[in-house]
Amino acid sequence: MAPSKPLHVKTPLRESIPLSKLAGTKVYLKLDSAQPTGSFKIRGGNAGLAAAYSARRLGIPATIYVPTSTPAFTVERLKDEGSNVCVEGEMLAESTKAAKELVKNNPEWVYVSPYDDPLIWEGHMSLIREIKEQMESKPGALALSVGGGGMLCGVIRGLRETKALLRRCLKVFKGIATTLGVNTVAVETLKLAQEHPVFSVVVTDREAVVAIEKFVDDEKILVEPACGAALTSVYSQVVQRLQAEGKLSPQLDSLVVIVCGGNNITLAELQHLKEQLGIQNDKDHWGQDSTENQVALAVWDVTSQANSGTFRASLQACWKPCAY
Ligand SMILES: Cc1ncc(COP(=O)(O)O)c(C=O)c1O
Known about the structure:
By secondary structure, the chain is an alpha/beta fold. It is about 40% helix and about 10% strand. The protein has a 6-stranded mixed β-sheet. Pyridoxal-5'-phosphate binds near residues 39, 114, 146, 150 and 261. Its cofactor is pyridoxal 5'-phosphate.
C-alpha cells in the first residue's frame, strides 16, 4: 500500500563551527546524509538504494542495475531492501543500457534514471525549499557535488523558484567517487547551465577522501567520496581560493554545503581508499595528487550579485580513468 507521506524527510540544516573556522565564513551543513537510505537521492526516488527503498515501501518489485565498481556491501544492502540486483558493465552507462533493455522487453516495467528525469529534479527541488525555510537570510554561496547533474538541476530549479538566477555548469568525470562517475550530464543540466552563470571547480580523489576523513573528526558523520567532493569546498580552501581570485565575494554571508551523504563507504572502505591513494595517517594528507582522478563540485556565489538577484557558479569538465 502506498504511503500517504513523502518517502524522504526534512533534513537538518545546522551551523558547523569547525568548518566555519576553516572557511573564514559561517558554514551551514544541509545534512541529507540523515535521509532514509543515507543520501539525498531519496528525494527523487532515484539511484540504487533510494529506488530499492522506495520500491519496498510502495510494495512494488524492483531490479537494480549497478556497475562492477559497486562495493559488495552496497550490493548486499540493495538485496536487503528486497530488490533484485544485476551487476552489469564497468561504468554506469553500461548498467543503464542493460536496464533499458529489460524495460524494452517488458513493457509493464518502468525505467528510473539515476539523474535524468523531471520528476527527479522536482524531488531535488525540495532541498532548496527546505533551505529557504530554514535560513533567516539568503545564503552567500552553495556548494554541492555533481555527477549526472540531477541534484544540480533540482537545485537550479529550486533557486529559480525562489527568484534567484544562475548560469553555466558542465561536468564529465570518472574516479573514486564512483557515484559521480557518469560520462555525460543530463541535457537539462546543460541547458540550465547555459542559461545561467555557473562557476566550476575540479578537485582530486585525494582531496575528496581526505575531506571525508576530516569530516568524521569534525562532525562525526561518515559520507562517501561523492559527497566528499562538496566538502572540499571548505577542506581544500576552494571557496577561499575563489574569493582570492575575485570570483566569489570576499564577504560571503554564509556558505551552505549540501552534505548529500551516500552509502558507498564504510570505515574499512575509507581505509582501503586511503591506502589506494597513498594517504598516510599523519600530516601527509595533501601529498602529490596531480596525476589522480578528479571529481567536481559547483560553488554558487549568491552575494556578489545579490542586488541583481543573480547567482554565479561554474563547473569544469574532467574525465580520467576509473581507479577501481
Ligand atoms: C552521494 C552522492 N552525491 C552526489 C551525487 C551526484 O548526483 P547527480 O548525479 O544528481 O549529479 C551522487 C550520485 O549518485 C551521489 O550518490
